[in-house]
Design brief:
This is Coil containing protein. By secondary structure, the protein is α+β, with helices and mostly antiparallel strands. Helix content is 40%, strand content 27%. The protein is built from four helices and eight strands. Helix 2 packs across helix 3 (58-96) and helix 3 crosses helix 4 (147-153).
């Protein structure tokens, strides 16, 4: 059996996420990654699209993959939480006839308006898992259990549906 035939049997296709993880570890672009394999249980070989190969210690590579997966999962969880928070804020703003400005997703905070008038600032405190609100940027944050509660505590009356 030739090396090429053996190599094709051992290799498995990589997902796009696999390629992103490997690319981050070896500081390349994901589209440069072709495949990888482990040689003799101690060396990880990364095959590049241009035919080049890079060798890494298996234990070092495995540790880096675990770290990168943890980082990606944290980012994805944060993204999902931001989507959920944005949906909650959007629904509450609709109930109160308000609009919100551009959201700072890193801190999840935004300005809230009625027409062109600034009503206040609303955000989400990740550590306390509570909504924050204040009328002015210089005012300390106060806390509420939901986006709707935060808007109500800003003194905004809920729209009544007829």
């Amino acid at each position: 059996m030739t090396y090429t035939a053996l190599n094709k049997q051992v290799q498995s296709p990589l997902t796009e996420q696999d390629k992103r993880i490997i690319a981050t570890i070896i500081q390349r672009h994901a589209d440069e990654i072709k495949t990888l394999w482990i040689d003799c249980g101690i060396t990880v070989w990364v095959q590049l699209q241009d035919g080049g190969r890079l060798a890494f210690d298996r234990n070092w590579f495995a540790q880096r993959v675990a770290e990168e997966k943890t980082s990606l999962e944290a980012q994805e969880n944060l993204h999902r939480q931001n989507q959920r928070l944005e949906a909650e804020l959007k629904q509450a703003c609709t109930e109160y006839g308000l609009q919100h400005g551009e959201i700072d997703y890193l801190m999840f905070s935004t300005k809230v308006y009625r027409g062109r008038d600034l009503v206040g600032f609303v955000g989400f405190h990740r550590f306390s898992q509570m909504w924050t609100y204040s009328r002015r940027a210089t005012e300390p944050d106060r806390y509420a259990r939901s986006a709707s509660d935060a808007l109500a505590k800003l003194g905004v009356r809920q729209l009544t549906m007829v």
